[in-house]
Structure formats: C-alpha cells, structure tokens
Amino acid sequence: MQNFTITSGGQELIAKMIAGTSTCTFTRLCTSEHDYTDVADLSTLTALEDIKQSVLISSISRTDTTLVNLIALVDNAELTEGYYIRAVGIYAKDSDNNEILYAVSTETEVADYLPPFSGKTIRSITYNMNIRVDNSEQVTLEVNPAAIPTMEQVNNIERKINTHVNLVFHSEEGVHGARYWDDTWQIKNENGEWEDAGSGGGGGVAPSNVSDLSLKVGNQKLTIKWSDPGNTVVDGQILCTWKGTKLVMKAGAYPETEKDGTVIVDNQTLNQYKTNGFEVTGLTNGTTYYFALFPYSDSGSVNRNTSNRVSGTPQPFKTLTVKIDLSNSNPSTCITAADDLVGMSQDDIDSFFGHYPVLLKNGAEVGKLKTTDFTKFEDGTSADIASGSAGDVMIAFPRRGLKISTSGNILTVSMTDNPDDSNFKYYAHTRGTTAKDVFYLGAYKGYEANSKLRSLSGKVPTANKTIGAFRTLAQANGTGYEQSGFYQLMFRQAMYLIKYQNLDSQSAVGKGYVGGSAAANTGATNKGGMDYGTTSTTTQMKLFGLEDFWGNIWEWIDGVVTNSTRNILTATDSFNDNGTGYTDRGQGATSNIGNYMSKPQGTSETGFLAKEVTGSATTYFCDYAYLCASRVAVFGGYWSDGDYAGAFSLRVHYSASNASATVGSRLMYL
C-alpha cells in the first residue's frame, strides 16, 4: 500500500487538536475493493466505497509528539468470498463523537488478495501504521477489548505462559495433539491416532464451494447433483489445485467435517456428477438424510463451508389411474379406479396433486393464499388480489407425470408424482426442451390492464380479441408468461377425471355460469374453497382453485392447431397462430366433426380432443366438442351455453382471426 493520505476531515481534526479544542480517538480500519486510481486527490474522500471488512484497532501508542502508531489485523475467518484489498481507510472520532474518514491508503500496482475461509486455515494481514496527528497528547490511547490481537500481541502473551515448558513438538508425545515426527507434521484424529497433517485438512488455500447443488427425491433413494469448483486461479496464477470432492452422509445432522459421517463417494473427476448426479440408494422412506460436500486440494486443504450442505427425505411415489370403458355411455358408471387411486379419499387425492393458490409477481411467489379465502394469505393477513400491484392470483400445479392411452374401448389415464418417470410424459411442465417444476394458471379469466393480461379479482373478463392479441397481452408480463396452453388444459382435465371419476362434470361439480346473459365479474368464488359448484346455471363454479373452469366466458387455448387435413399440431413453446414449428401428432378426423363427444383422441400427445361425437348431454363425456380443419381452440363454454359447457368442451373450430365478445383468455406462467 502507498503512504496514508490525511483527508480534509482528518486535517480539520488535526487543527482542532493543535488548538486544544478536540481530542482524537481512532476507532477502526476498513478495507475496500474499490479502485481509486482515477481519484486525483484522495484527501477529498469522506468515506470508503465498497467496504469489505471493518476491524477495530488492536494497538495504539505514541511514537513522538506528532505521530501515533496503530496496529490492526484483518483476517478471513468470516469470509465466504475472497477479494482484493485495493484501499485501506482509518476512521476516527472527535470529542463530540462524530466519526470521520481520517486517512486513506490505496494500492496502484499489485493488491493483496484475501481468500475465503477454507474451514481450517485462517489467513490474516497485519497493518502497522504511523499516522500523523501533530499533537499526540490529544489522542486517546484506549483499545477496545473486542479488537482482534495481532500475532505480535499473541506471541507476547505466549512468552509469559510457563505451562508445557518441557514439552516440544519434535517429540513422540507432541504438544496439544500436534507433533513433528519422522520428518512429518502430524495431528491426532478423533480416534486419538496420529496421521499426517495433509490428510486431515492440510495447508494452503482450500478450493471454492461447489455450485449447482441440488437434490432430487426418489422412492428409497436420493440423487444429488453438483458442479465441482476446479482450480482457483487469480490473475493467471493457480492459488489452489482441486483434487477431489467428498460427499459425506450423516443421520440426524449435517456432517461438520469430511470425517463426521459416512463418505459415500470421493470424486476426483471434475463435474462427474453435474448432469446425472450421484444416486444414494437403499434409504428408508420418510427418514431425512443430511449431506455435506467437502472439496479438497492436492495439498490436503479442505473446504468445510456450510454452503455445501443439502438434505432430503425419500418418499414412495404413487400412481393414480382411471380406466374408462368407452363402450359404456353412462358417465357415472363407466369409470373404474386403479393402482393407488383405489380407496383414496378426495382429500388424499388433492394432497397428491399438491396444487395451491398464490400471489405471483414477475414469475415469483409473493405468498400462498388461504384455500378457503383467496382474499387472505395463509397467516390470515389481507392479500391485495384486485389492484394488480401485488401480483396476480394464480394456482400452482407442481410437476406430475401424465400417461394417456387407448386400447380397444378402454381409455386409461394415469398420473404419477414421480418427477422423472420415463413411462410418463411431462408436457405440461416442459418449456421447449426444458423441464419445469411447476406451472401456474390464473385463478380467474383474464383481464387487460396497462396492455397486459392479468388474473385479478373484481374485474369484468376481457374479451373480443384474437388468440394472437391475447397471446401478446400475456407475454407482455415478461419471460415465461403465456395464455393457457393445451397441455396444461389436458393436465387439469386428467386431474378432474382422477378426482371425480365421472364424465359428466356439470353433475359432479356444478353447472357453472351457463344460463346468464352477460359476462360475470371475477372473484365471486373467492371464499368457496378450491372446488365449488351448485345446480344453478347462474352461479359461477370453481375447480382446483380455477374460477370458471367452465362457463362465464370461453378461453383461448394456445399450443394446439389443426392443419388443412385436420392433423393435430401441438407445442410446449413458441406458440403461434398456424402451428409453425409445432409437432404433427397425426390426423384427428377425416372430416369436420362437432357434437357431444363420445370418444377422445386418447393419447398422451392429443388427450381429450374430440375423435367421435355421437353422445348427448347425459351420455359419454356430456360436453360439446369440435375438431375442424385449419382452426385454433377455445375451451369451457360461455354464459349461455347450458349443457354444451363442461370439463371436456374443447372446440377446435375458431379461426385465428376470430374475435368474439364470448371469448377471453386465462393467464399462464411456465
């Protein structure tokens, strides 16, 4: 560091000391990573920028009538990230207890680097400074007892201690569990055995923390992924050479050291477990397991930072299945429960789904809402669900796998809570090729505010816009926002079948608002729980927290179109009007069809799009559906649709250029 420059504030304090009108108490030393090379006159500074550490003065003494000697120590015991010391400032207080920046020193060439704490070796820098005061008699010489002692002070204390005067390190017995024996520094381990110091922690700089640390829960297993830190390189110089990372497991608490628990893998191949992770098997479901990763260097220095910890509880996965006999026209008797669904209560089914209401703002959860009253957060405090400034009211749907197949007249719909089962599809939780943990749907039909599609209570749903116009409004909220997508619709339709096991949704849940004369305001069902319905055709219904799951106003469904030959085209990203870039799922019908649906397409890719339409309002799926050429989709029915509406009223018969007062949209975030 360069010589200290007295600041203007320091010069004023010196003048007061010379005049005898003030004393000076040096309070602390601060370090900064800020580059002051562009500051022509350091005396103009009144405070340090980008302060990294602030320490008390360890020692102060008068050198002569105009100088005092200050000693302060900076170490890395609390550092989680290293930094370059490019400036040092001395702070002082006057008689009125006003603290000022007294003096500054900067580094213009090679700055000192203080690395993060490795978990074993503490690095420190001692500053021994002669500071001009011009009247040292006016300087207070008291030292705060909380200040860290310097090595010189520690050595002075040690020289006064007579204990162990006859013990030496270079003996077989050693001193305090350490010895220099057989030309090697050794320490005693927790078993009282001598071992080379390098094998238990070593010296030098330890590797940095691991990154991308994650844990995936499985059935009797946990999978841990991480990226190894690699070598630590500063200004082209290797300060630490990474040798490996140990994964240690312990029951009841996190491992404190690499020997505190069971080492289940000692990885010495960089990023070996970054992509697929390390799978820990043979675990007990319902038991929490604690893990810590310990990167270590070629010199044996170990990183024991608590940031490298993770825990998890393995859980058994469930599969809920319904089998639908498509030859049975009775909507309430054609369905049979299978797999883990047999004997499950509706509460247990909801717990399996795991969906919940939430305020979502800029793609982040602000807070969960009460399932029985959307106007309040879970803790009972009021939630702003109307103004839009606090976010949108959304329903979160955690990642679940879906499988739909048809064999003869049996349609099988299965859902699993296994987040990664190759036998299931996760289209609703996929954005392009990227897997997502949750998707969010607006609890209400969409409302336009400030050229954005919102999900807010107490609003008249916006309508009379094309599917493309609504898409633009939704995407205006930011990355990840869309209007409701086809695979998210298929997902919630499957949820309905699994929970209610009845193809007639208007009988199982409620008629919905399908007998009115105009669109109804949003929010009427805020205190109706997550599922609500009546036999009235002028009362809004609610399913899985989604108000007007059907009825009130249609909603555009993005991500599915048909071409001129009625081939079904679908996508999970890059939605557009004509299906450019979509995947062709095959021909859905040889001619335009429209009536009450009796048989759906019935695959994991095409779901509940109409295949045959020979039903009625009381048979088969009980809802009106269309599949026409070169069309986009609307869903749910509107305020005067009567029996046409319901959970399977999916109509692919609108042109992308169509805009109607009966068609709106629902916000989505994925």
Description:
It is a single chain. This protein is mainly β and 670 residues long. It folds into three domains: 5-156, no CATH class; 211-312, Sandwich (Immunoglobulin-like); 317-670, no CATH class. 8% of the residues lie in helices and 36% in strands. Strands 39, 40, 41, 42, 45, 46, 47 and 48 form an eight-stranded mixed beta sheet that branches. A seven-stranded antiparallel beta sheet has the order 27-26-25-28-33-49-36, covered by helices on one side. The longest helix is centred in the C-terminal third of the chain and has 15 residues, at 486-500. It starts with a strand and ends with a strand. Residues 198-202 have low confidence and may be disordered.
Could you write a compact summary of the structure shown?
The chain is mostly beta strands. Residues 198-202 have low confidence and may be disordered.
Q: Could you tell me how far the N terminus lies from the C terminus, measured between alpha carbons in angstroms?
A: 52 Å
Radius of gyration: 35 Å
Largest sheet: 8 strands, mixed
Range of strand content: 35-45%
Shape: elongated
Mean pLDDT: 91
Contiguous helical run count: 6
Low-confidence stretches: 198-202
Blueprint of the fold:
Elements (H helix, E strand, L loop, with lengths): L4 E2 L1 H12 L5 E8 L18 E6 L2 E4 L4 E9 L7 E3 L1 E7 L5 E8 L5 E3 L9 E9 L18 H8 L19 E4 L2 E5 L5 E3 L14 E8 L2 E7 L4 E3 L2 E4 L1 E10 L10 E6 L10 E4 L7 E9 L11 E4 L6 E7 L9 E5 L6 H8 L2 E6 L2 E7 L2 E5 L14 E7 L2 E7 L2 E7 L13 E2 L2 E2 L2 E5 L4 E3 L2 E3 L12 H9 L5 E3 L2 H15 L4 H4 L33 E2 L2 E2 L6 E9 L4 E4 L12 E5 L5 E4 L2 E2 L9 E3 L11 E4 L4 E4 L14 E5 L8 E2 L2 E3 L1
Parallel strand pairs: 39-48, 45-47
Antiparallel strand pairs: 1-8, 2-3, 2-7, 4-5, 5-10, 6-9, 7-8, 11-12, 12-13, 14-15, 15-20, 16-17, 18-19, 18-21, 21-22, 23-24, 23-30, 25-26, 25-28, 26-27, 28-33, 29-30, 31-32, 33-49, 34-35, 36-49, 37-38, 39-40, 39-46, 40-41, 42-45, 43-44, 46-47
Helix pairs in contact: 3-5
